[in-house]
Write a structure and sequence with these properties.
mainly alpha
Length: 104
C-alpha cells in the first residue's frame, strides 16, 4: 500500500509542478489554490509512505515520478523540445525508479 500512496504523491507532484506554470507567478487565484493543495497533499502522502518505505528510496522515487511526468507534460502541453538526449535522460530516470522499486 505504501507504494500506491507514494505513486499518488508523485502524481500530485506532477500536478503542482505543472500547476506552477498556470499560476502566472501566483497571480491567478484558482490555479494558485489548486497548486498549493497539490503541494501539501503530495508532501503529506510522501510522509505517509515513509512509515513503511526507506526515506532515500521513497524520496528518490517521488522526485523521479515528478521529474519524468513534468518533463513529459512539458513536451506535450508546452511544446518543449523532445530531443533524443532529453528522452534518453528521462529513460534513465525511469530505469532508476524501477531499480529502486526492485531492490526495496
Amino acid at each position: 500500500m505504501a507504494w500506491v500512496i507514494l505513486f499518488v504523491a508523485g502524481l500530485l507532484e506532477i500536478g503542482w509542478a505543472i500547476g506552477l506554470k498556470y499560476t502566472d507567478g501566483f497571480s491567478r487565484l484558482v490555479p494558485s489554490v489548486l497548486t498549493a493543495v497539490s503541494m501539501v497533499a503530495s508532501v503529506v502522502l510522501l510522509g505517509w509512505s515513509l512509515k513503511t518505505l526507506p526515506v532515500g528510496t521513497a524520496y528518490a522515487v517521488w522526485t523521479g515520478i515528478g521529474a519524468v511526468g513534468t518533463a513529459a507534460l512539458g513536451i506535450y502541453l508546452f511544446g518543449e523540445p523532445a530531443t533524443a538526449a532529453r528522452l534518453a535522460s528521462i529513460g534513465l530516470i525511469v530505469a532508476g525508479i524501477a531499480g529502486l522499486k526492485l531492490v526495496t
